[in-house]
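Predicting holo structure, magnesium ion bound.
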Amino acid sequence: MAEQTQMLNYVSAIGAAIREEMQRDKTVAMWGEDLVSMRGAYGENPGMYEEFGDRIMDTPIVEQAILATGMGAALTGTRAIVSIMTTGFLAIAFDGLFMEVGGLRQEFGYTGPMPLVVFCRTGVGGGFGAHHCASIESTLMHSPGLKIVMPSTPYDAKGLMKTAIRDDDPVVFLAHGPVYFRGKQEIPAEEYLIPFGKADVKKEGTDVTIVVYAGMVRKALAAAETLSKENGISAEVLDLRTLVPLDIDAIVTSVKKTGRLLIAHEAMKRGGAAGEIAMRFTEAAPDVAKTLKTPVRRLGAKNVALPRSAELERMLIPNDKDVVAIVKEMMA
Amino acid sequence: MEIANDKLLEMHRNLLTSRRLGEKLYEIFCAGGSGMPWIHRGIGEEAIPIAVCANLRKDDYLKLTFRLDYCLFAKGLSLTEVIASECMRDCSELGRPRSPYFDPDFGLLAHTGAGGEEIPIYLGSAISIMLKKTDQVCVCVMGDGFASRGPVHESMVMAASWNLPIVFMIQNNQYGMGTSAKKIYKMKDISDRAKAYGFPGETVDGNDVIATYEVVKKHIDRARNGGGPSLVVGETYRLAGHYEGDPQIYRPKGEIDEWWKKDPLPRYQKRLLEMGVLTEKDIAELESTIKVQMEDATKSALALPFASYENHLKTAIDEL
Ligand SMILES: Cc1ncc(C[n+]2csc(CCOP(=O)(O)OP(=O)(O)O)c2C)c(N)n1
Ligand SMILES: [Mg+2]
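Done. Tokens:
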């Protein structure tokens, strides 16, 4: 029997996951700004409110309260999804997210459930300025208790959102804004979940491992194609999908095969996830690290603020050409 | 209160200019390629910023709501500077800051993308005023939506405690994105909030230029003379969508038509005509002067370069 599929874009895939989970579990509820009145500030709530009444609610513009109420609700029997429009506004709720949600349970040794999903848009594009697209994931990695999900495709977004909602720990779901409406993907109609901490080989290769996530995946794939066509270089593209937990085994397995490791992200280079991932690799597999054909390399955005200019913004973050160039250096 | 004819005419000139400027910016946005990443129109809400500016000096500090930043020409920016700023141009060539919207010497500390965060930043300027013992003031106009934010509350507590020279103003255009202010605020008069902080609060018809001017003036004068903070709420209406392209599914039928009838521009013109301060001929002449100014300013603004990559990189504090 042929498997049933549906064509969904990124944002509808997330919406579908939330809807399915809300149907499945009556304790799931979601709140944030303009989820009902505008069907989501970025269209991420296509009409779900009609079905769920009070379980999807609009809030005033009160990010600190949105975030922290999510924690309180999650500790008292609600499987909460709180929506913060963008990462810049997540920074507003930084104590709530970093210290309270990410730390308080551990500080008191509380091991009970705290099922909270913090849903937030991230990703550079549009020239709207840093508050609307800053990549702050590495900052969040430094909080002791936050799982961090950063899907690159509609398929991954749906499966990971379902896992996030069912998870008993707090999860920050950073959705990649620039691809919300860019292209649909065939998605199984049947339910599926994607486990956390499982990277996905988006393209197999033998010469170099390119570790990426979110917006960098598409660029790495484009680069891999160029490298293969023009330079005969076979790159393996590994999509992390979750930064915490990190699938270090997948990285080691791949690098064992290729002998070369590049980590690339759109976030600023200084203090970015790449530095952490490189060290994790070295610690996890010192023997492999010792036999690398070339030192580990990384790509990240320039260490300056994102300006309010689509053009400058594009120049500051790595693109597929940067990936090609650095891989060629690594092969030389 | 007797308002001098010069002042009345200045406000008319600015109100008309702001309307035409808003239209011009919309035209530039729709034409595309200008560098303006988005547009949040302020049409129909210009009376508040214009009446506020009419009470301020160049060295006073001012924050308007982000959708009405273009009214900063009424504080003394040139039309060229405003259009250039909206279109993300670099104004250094004019001997001005890259963005004249961020010019502390001119009383402007810019807008962050995170609404509400500016309020304590601006309150800091009131602290400087206190420390330097000058007679400047700070006016912070915020939307009904962002007025909910935590930093606004903290700023009001601190302003009251330190008796700082600031006027908080809420420009209630009835919506924060798609959310109606009525769904958020359960009191009839939002300025009642001031009671909780122990400073005066007052609500005014923000589409009535003269009324707004008078109320704002009272509170600005008070702050200038050491009287401390206060809250003014200006009632108005967002005649445009939140952003260009907003399908506005949240707006009840007919509501917008009612508010078009209260459009501050024709209302003010009618009033001045009745008072005999202005004639139809004056209006026509002013329209043509503004038209020429607008074309010139647009041309010079769009001739300015975008901020360059090299210059932007120079803002880094350590290795890139
Ligand atoms: C802290 C923060 N949260 C959310 C947003 C997204 N946002 C942009 S404008 C806006 C509504 C603001 O409403 P209001 O203050 O009434 O100003 P108006 O748009 O009516 O001029 C929102 C929620 C933001 N920019 N900053
Ligand atoms: Mg408003």
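Chain B has a mean pLDDT of 96.
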